[in-house]
Amino acid sequence: MSVSATGRTGGRGRLKGVSLVVGGAVLFAAGLFVVVTGTSLSGVLGMRVETFGRIDCHDTRTEKGQTVWHCFGETPAQQRANDAERKRVALESLRAHVDGTPGPADIQRVRILFTDHDGRTDPETITATQVFDGGRWYAHSSMLVGYGMIPLLLGAGTGAWGGYLLRKR
């Protein structure tokens, strides 16, 4: 403990405590944001949540219970539009001898990150959250929640330690 000319204790311990509390709060908030994104709580907070079907993960090396980083899926609206486009191309291909070869079907799919996978077959549906409009979709998965728990717990511990140092002074 140092004593300054005015007789007060040095401000170093207080500054360290405040910085730990602030840093812990930032880590806690970041972790909470990731945990909420990986769960169905994201819809309550106003984030866009959608359920995707026709999932295709393109990953055969996944073991049971792991997470696939990139999968592709279709929203119900995309499924209807894609079915209509497939039907249009199929009907036009019947007329190919008259009008020429039809153009390929324009199929729209969405990329989804952090999808839980059983290691054998792709899931039937995936519920995912889009944090920002036009941004990436993050599947509600145990891996995303697990990654979010790391900064959440570190932030809580760091903030508590900083609070302890502030109370100690």
Report on this structure.
By secondary structure, the protein is α+β, with helices and mostly antiparallel strands. It contains 4 helices and 5 strands; from the N terminus they run αββααβββα. The chain has helices at 12-37, 76-94, 96-99, 142-168; strands spanning 48-56, 66-74, 110-117, 125-130, 137-139. It has a 5-stranded mixed beta barrel with strand order 1-2-3-5-4. A hairpin with a 6-residue loop joins strand 4 and strand 5 (137-139). The longest helix has 27 residues, at 142-168. The radius of gyration is 26 Å and the shape is elongated. The N and C termini lie close together (10 Å).
Protein traits:
169 residues, 45% helix, 5 strands, alpha+beta
User: How much helix, percentage-wise, in residues?
Assistant: 40-55%
Whole-number mean pLDDT? 82
Q: What is the strand content? A: 15-25%
First-to-last CA distance: 10 Å
Structural class: alpha+beta
Low-confidence stretches: 1-7
Query: Strand order of the main beta sheet, please?
Result: 1-2-3-5-4
Shape: elongated
Radius of gyration: 26 Å
List the helices and strands in order: HEEHHEEEH
Oligomer: single chain
**Using DSSP, what is the number of strands?**
5
**What's the story with the biggest beta sheet?**
5 strands, mixed, barrel
Q: Figure out the total of helices.
A: 4
Summarize the structure.
This protein is α+β, with helices and mostly antiparallel strands and 169 residues long.
Task: Set down the secondary structure blueprint.
Layout: H1 12-37, E1 48-56, E2 66-74, H2 76-94, H3 96-99, E3 110-117, E4 125-130, E5 137-139, H4 142-168
Parallel strand pairs: 3-5
Antiparallel strand pairs: 1-2, 1-4, 2-3, 4-5
Helix pairs in contact: 1-4
